[in-house]
Amino acid sequence: MALKATIHKAHVQIADMDRGIYAAHALTLARHPSETDERMLLRVLAFALHVPADDHRGTLDFGVGLSDPDAPDVFQRDLTGDILHWIELGQPDERRLQKASSRSERVSVYSYAASTPIWWAGLVNKIDRMDKVAVWQIPAESSAELAKLVERSMQWQVTIQDGTVWITDGPRTVEITPILLKDRRTKYA
Question: What are the DSSP E strand ranges found in 53-129?
Fold first, then answer.
């Protein structure tokens, strides 16, 4: 018998001072049996970093996760069904990023493993002309600390200011400063 996904609930209050977005979101996360807590919580981080101020152009949603390797991890779909923003976690290859670029207006990648510099060195020249793609590195120590906040029911306050993210669950706080490796429309940050 196949293992079932584990359901987690997250109530996330976001204060994004960089974009002027202040909102509360009730999220339901299905963690695939092969997905780590770290990766699941990075989906929440990506959500907080990219949630739109309103739903006039659609909402930000979680993909079906590891059960469908062709789907984005997080995405914003407009009211016609077109994908506006495709968000990937991990270390996708150039073919996957090309596919994501052809299916959406913009692509964001968040790599969080200690091997990110090696992956990036092999990819940087291959995606040089992909104007829609932005690549970020989450320091491995920060993502490991984030994984320690996992619970079946989570209450988070997420504050974003000057590119730094503070995630607090009450007694614990994790500080994450994503490192921009490649910005959209430019070669390198």
Answer: 59-62, 74-77, 83-89, 104-111
Task: Classify burial at 59, counting beta carbons within 10 Å of its beta carbon; exposed 0-12, middle 13-18, buried 19 or more.
Answer: middle
Name the region of 163 (left: φ>0; alpha: ψ -120 to 50; beta: rest).
left
Distance CA 144, CA 141 (A): 5
Q: Which of 41, 16, 17 is nearest to 31 (CA)?
A: 41
Which superfamily is assigned to 6-182 in CATH? Restriction endonuclease-like alpha-beta roll domain (3.10.640.10)
Domain ranges of the chain: 6-182
> Dihedral sign, CA of 180, 172, 159, 157?
positive
State pLDDT tens for residues 135-177. 999 999 999 999 999 999 999 999 999 999 999 999 999 999 9
CA distance 76 to 60: 4
What tens digit of pLDDT does each residue of 78-136 get?
989 999 999 999 999 999 999 999 999 999 999 999 999 999 999 999 998 899 999 99
Tokens of 130: 């992909």
Q: Nearest 5°: phi and psi at 168?
A: -125, 135
